[in-house]
Amino acid sequence: DAKTTQPPSMDCAEGRAANLPCNHSTISGNEYVYWYRQIHSQGPQYIIHGLKNNETNEMASLIITEDRKSSTLILPHATLRDTAVYYCIVRGGNSGYSTLTFGKGTMLLVSP
Amino acid sequence: GAVVSQHPSWVICKSGTSVKIECRSLDFQATTMFWYRQFPKQSLMLMATSNEGSKATYEQGVEKDKFLINHASLTLSTLTVTSAHPEDSSFYICSAWLGFEYFGPGTRLTVT
């Protein structure tokens, strides 16, 4: 699976949008971009995933560039409970399982 | 959404003893489950892939005789840490596959 690069930390004010970038320049055509987050001392929580089109769900939006070499996770109105480590992971196609490789992620700190 | 539970949430055991951690998929059947380990301030590291009714597949460097995995049913996988030592103290997290990985809340193991 392709490797990802994320900034180690980011700050965001409560109520503002949090935009978390991820570079995955070696992504191949059948690989998906997944985002998980881990709140302190809890298991990771699935947020969203996409292949090439932008995706939105009740938690977040995922914007993938046209060349698919980078993506941005957007939390539209960050709250204090969104403080967590956010992991951007690239993994193989949806047919059958393939393992997740967790990098160091981005520590997002949402402040009042 | 799919729910994965772990039991116990935390455990303290003495060096040399064995401890079993359970991972259950509560509202779905999971042919494949995964076990991860996370040391303080580090990312998750995959230990093994557990398939129902067959032997687990261990990642390189993980001792299969020390970390026994049993996936006897479609909703239960267990991890037994045998002859635990203080260096086995860690946060153990399982996940279950249902199109993508749903994670449990984790088990904090402390070996004294």
The biggest beta sheet of chain B is recorded as: 7 strands, mixed
Q: Give the rounded overall mean pLDDT of chain B.
A: 94
For this entry, what is the oligomeric state of its chains? heterodimer
Strand order of the largest sheet of chain A: 1-9-8-3-4
**Regions with little confidence, pLDDT below 50 for 5+ residues of chain A:** none
Task: Indicate the topology.
The complex is a heterodimer of chains A (112) and B (112).
Chain A: E1 9-13, E2 18-23, E3 32-38, E4 45-50, E5 55-56, E6 61-64, E7 70-75, E8 84-91, E9 106-111
Chain B: E1 4-7, E2 10-13, E3 19-25, E4 32-38, E5 45-51, E6 57-58, E7 67-73, E8 76-81, E9 90-97, E10 101-103, E11 107-111
Parallel strand pairs in B: 2-11
Antiparallel strand pairs in B: 1-3, 3-8, 4-5, 4-9, 5-6, 7-8, 9-10, 9-11
Briefly say what this structure is.
The complex is a heterodimer of chains A (112) and B (112). Chain A has 112 residues and is mainly β. Chain A has strands spanning 9-13, 18-23, 32-38, 45-50, 55-56, 61-64, 70-75, 84-91, 106-111.
List keywords for this structure.
heterodimer, A: 112 residues, mainly beta, 5-stranded mixed β-sheet, 4-stranded antiparallel β-sheet, B: 112 residues, 7-stranded mixed β-sheet
Task: Characterise the protein shown here.
- The complex is a heterodimer of chains A (112) and B (112).
- By secondary structure, chain A is an all-beta fold.
- Chain A has strands at 9-13, 18-23, 32-38, 45-50, 55-56, 61-64, 70-75, 84-91, 106-111.
- In chain A, 0% of the residues lie in helices and 45% in strands.
- In chain A, a hairpin with a 6-residue loop joins strand 3 (32-38) and strand 4.
- Chain A is globular, with a radius of gyration of 13 Å.
- In chain B, a hairpin with a 5-residue loop joins strand 5 (45-51) and strand 6 (57-58).
- Chain B is globular, with a radius of gyration of 13 Å.
- Chain B starts with a strand and ends with a strand.
